[in-house]
């Protein structure tokens, strides 16, 4: 509140418009409520909080915060492998050993697991994500994944501290914790893939690599200013730990979504998600451009990215930001990017561990007596494994060559009137008719390989 009041006075003295009036709130959730009730017009939120806000409130994005790179990006979430492990790709990670920064963290958990789920590579039943990860990877080190109900192989690769204690702790007492820890897990050949941020490889390799001078061993066109931009002003390759000695960035590669691999510096093209910096949220009736212009002009009269004098950190805006950038889209989904949004949505479960959008039951349309019997057995098998939703079958009497068309019609027409079926298996020709005529969409495809 003190920082906001000081900013308001400074902007008023400089005749920056519109004027700023400060409204106290207890939390981002309280800010969202006040925005919905037209008690506030604007505030800054992390991209994760903006995603959450988007499920409950209508708003616009006026601007984004950015550091000196001008991208409005915190970092890129990447998957790193050893270059000499030539067979591994994003398409064959199942059954591999994985290294993560920690359970619930963005680069090491939400982005990679969300990506694998959203892309159909990882299957998660009943929104039990930890179980899905345990089934997908053969063994992992995921610090913090030692809560009641977490499968044991999620911490199998963790090593704890120097005495062997604190294994899988969600702190630096676990040597494989956070970005450098997850990379160490890979570098020591404990795991086969590490999920980290885009600067992690270069920060832990190439000895005393600097951004200029004779010690530079990277591509010549990345020396100097571009290197400084890459590391956002932080020293490169200065990890003095014994495990990092002798590591070369050239011995590691990134896994790309298209199945290819790339050098660590090619992170903009080869990543699992771009993680946006904080965004400026405004009400639907507020002029976004006016808010951006006010902030852009106002920062010349007041240091909006300094919180220490007011007794806190990241007050109102992030302390690591340097300026604001006009949002390319007022739609928060487009602003944050489809991959980041989809990854978060794939991880979006309620506090009770159930997916918020999973129905209690799924009614499957069967086309013959044989399908009815098979569907009943499938439903029983799913129920025995506690899989949701519960499968029920909806039988229709008309069988034969035209039965799929009849079932599509019944499914669509009755679903509009709380009907009897939700899903059906069709071949390609009938799928075309289902989409064109009745508006159905494919949920999954069968594979013959």
From TrEMBL:
CDD domains xref list: PBP2_transferrin
Gene3D superfamilies: Periplasmic binding protein-like II
Xref: InterPro entries: Transferrin-like_dom, Transferrin_Fe_BS
Principal location: secreted
Keyword match Lyase: no
One cellular component (GO) term of this entry: plasma membrane
Keyword entries, A-Z: Repeat, Secreted
Position of the signal peptide: none
Gene Ontology biological-process annotations: iron ion transport
One Pfam assignment: Transferrin
Domain Transferrin-like residues, every copy: 1-349, 362-449
Localization per Swiss-Prot or TrEMBL: Secreted
Domain of life: Eukaryota
Entry protein name: Melanotransferrin-like
Native organism taxonomy: Eukaryota, Metazoa, Chordata, Craniata, Vertebrata
